[in-house]
What does this fold into?
Amino acid sequence: MFGLTVWSTTTVVAIIVVGTLLIHQVRRRLRTSTPRSTVVDDKTVYSDEGDRRTTNGRYKPGLPLPSSIVASHHETIDRGQWVLRMTRHVFNERHEGQHNVVVINKELEYHFDIEGIVERHHAKYYEPPSSRLVPYDVVVFREGVLHNMGDGGDINWDWMGNFERHGTGMLVFKPCQHDKRYLQDPWIASID
It folds into this structure.
């Protein structure tokens, strides 16, 4: 009887130790797989993972946005152009028009009801001369409704996909159809 009790206690301790190790490993993987942006040289925001593609040239889901897209060199690209560039890249190149994309300034007052999030990133635009970093949310999703109650200028938000615009601050997104080509709103300025 004593041997069975010792064996059972040892087994319980072993299970606890293995469970704790597995939890730490999962947490570590979640921390390292989360896209992060960092400031380099006090001017440019880069993704810390760089550009990574699969062998067929498509981006792997969950990898950070490429540094060439996230970089905010204020000498060569203004904030509106940066937001437009990020939207177009994520929609056209990263997801090949298969999912809706919204890039929005996180400092705005808005309500976003989303279903089917495919991918989500956070990026920051370096705003001179104040050296302020403006935070943005980059969301790839199946469908949803976005109510923007803040500034609706193209420096604050942009989107692509299967949407209907209601007034100046409401967008209703339906799932993208694979055989259809989607464009941005016609009021969008060129980034060229």
User: Anything to note?
Assistant: Residues 1-33 form one domain. Residues 31-55 have pLDDT under 50 and may be disordered. The helical segments are 2-33, 67-70, 79-94. The chain is about 25% helix and 30% strand.
